[in-house]
Batch of 2 targets.
Target 1
Amino acid sequence: MTSVAIDRPGGKTRGTGGESFFRAACLAAATLLMAALAGVMVSLAIGGWPAFRQFGFGFLTSSEWNPVTEVYGAAGPIVGTLITSFLALAVALPLAIGVAVFLVEFCPRAFARPVAVAVELLAGIPSIVYGMWGLFVLAPWFAEHVQLPLIMNAEPGSLMDRLFSGIPNGANIFTASLILAIMILPYMSAVFRELFLTVPAQVREAAYGLGCTPFEVVRSVVIPYVRKGMVGVIMLGLGRALGETMAVTFIIGNAHGFPKSLFDSGSTIASTIANEFAEATGEMHTAALMALGLVLFVITFSVLAIARLLLGGRKY
Amino acid sequence: MNRALRRRIVNGLFVTACSAATLLALGALALILWSLVGKGIGGLDLAVFTQDQPAPGSPGGLRNAIAGSLMMCGIAMVIAVVVGILAGTWLAEYGGRTPYGHVVRFLNDVLLSAPSILVGLFVYELLVRPFHGFSGYAGAVALAFLATPIVTRTTEDILNLQPNTLREAGMALGASRAFVIRKIIWRAAGAGLLTGGLLGFARISGETAPLLFTSLGNQFFNANMTQPTASLPTTIFQFALSAYDDWQRLAWVGALLIAAAVLTINIIGRFLARETHRS
């Protein structure tokens, strides 16, 4: 017999020596995680403080970003971030819901699982791959087959002309949003699918039993059942899009200031930081980029926090 | 009759729209993989693994970048697995139901999808600025911050799946809680814990943004991680945006390598997870 002592009065049971130590180590690790998130916020606030002090509230409302004269206003990248993220969400959301509904309701059994796994695997492809594809494949194609014809056919001064003007090189706000949409699409579909699968079979079957068509089941039973969770998934997708860096940096064109049209080049907070931080020219430049980071942190943290609250304890 | 017909038409349109959405999504993603393979596979040869990155116009490979990536990801994973498994264990076995436990779990979930570039900025303030220099270790720490939440989450989930009878049986024999967790629960959950590590590894192996201003990149082979260290993603970024054809070709090869690695690791992870479920 191995000696697992169970009845040694007063003696130590095997393993008790490590008990409090082990427990403390686990607690410390959990606390470290929290400290990490707090650390991100605190370090960005400290690093960005000089910029906030110098420019005050104007940092958020001015769109002048000039490292030479050391004047920094973040409105351009902030607006660029919001526009690209919401455009991407507008494109990806209907598609993601469609894919998830197809996989849960209509797809033949034999295909459902492989397709679902493929979608989930694609969600894990690194963003730099999407970025390269955007720059080398999507942008040239888009410039030639969409942008040029639209510019040619727009009457000068019309709404179309204003919406579509810009350098026809395919690197602009719109293509950046498209790439973002393609990136968040597999992620959102995968989560939507899991959400739809939580609807109890009885509820669904009861509706079918009343003679509902599949469309009516989805519209009147499935979607109302998971409505709160769906808003959570949308927020998760938005959070991804807001913070996405590399794919956007490749293709957005990296111009400061407000984008003047849908096909104008622009910048997002993340792309500005990625492009300029390692080569920041001075203290104030670094501070301004840190302050930008804090703005992004506050936006994404709020969005993600809402998403998590709506989704409850589910794992995604 | 009219109404029944309308319902059928609406339903038909809906089914068509959903199928079209799936085709469109899979088509777009297939297109990306297609050009990735098409542009990358031609340049894939032994030199990619045996030679360092070249000057524009001369032959070369990605050895320094691959080695740098492996070193940084390796160190990051050691940190992430230790911290993540302990934190996940605390959530599942000790304090997960306390108010503090709820806060930790909530913040961990937020960290799961936090923008990676902000982690880069944080580590820059934490390790690069105070020590006056970019380093491979800073890059590894940044990556560890990204992998840890994944390991934590998977660990907690997999430990929660272990039956309580296992814990009770161990304690009935007089073993302490820590002993039960380490010798019984962790062992029973072994493959699941490995899955968590693999998923974390897959996530960080393609990360570029947090490395841009922590490990910076290095055009030479370098085993000293206190110095700026090359990594596959940052090298791809630099090469892809360059004006040289041969650098762009190498960038595609690198992108293909990363995508293949990430897919393989993810598939292994999934396979292991399914095996655990079965047993």
Target 2
Amino acid sequence: MTALDSLPPWLMALVAFFLVLGSTLTLLGAFGLFHLKSFYDRIHAPTLGTSWGTAAILLASLLAWSWVQDRVFLHELVIGISVMVTTPVTLMFLGRAALHRDRVDGHGTVPPAAVTEPTREAVSSAGMD
Amino acid sequence: MTTVLWLALTWAQLALALAACLATWRIAVGPRAQDRVLGLDALYIATMLLFIVTGMRLGTPFLFEAALVIAIGGFMGTVSLAKFLLRGEVIE
């Protein structure tokens, strides 16, 4: 903690608040991942860490480094945008994969597919018409 | 006032390390493959945040590049593993 000693007290309190908020939310999300019973419950828990956990820690880092270096740091912005954009994509993919696997194996109590998949012949004949 | 920041940094490092341990437990135990992939996703987020907090404590900006690489690489890893679970192959 060499460079951060030059922060004024109000900014130091703000940085400390955001650090504690972000790390506590990430810990709560990981505890939910550890504790909850079914996969479809567990998939929601780590999003605490990817939404406000990441946002608060990056905000604390942004405030501290912007004061120390006297310029706005862009690294945090790039990391934050990439995490916030990619997390829904990964969780949608993972949820669909889990649903597919549960339906194929007949594992657990997942609802069946709502609409029957059209066969390849039906699609091609409809396209021919 | 420095003490407040020291306490906050220590708490953040301990909480993020514990979060990484819980995600590792889910990877090791998780009953099915999708649980392990979800644990991997939570593990790389916690590790990336731990890198950022450690960079703040050490006063070096060089750990940001490592955190960025972890963020991008973790996204690639989770998406390709989920694609593998969904289709049975990664590149069709």
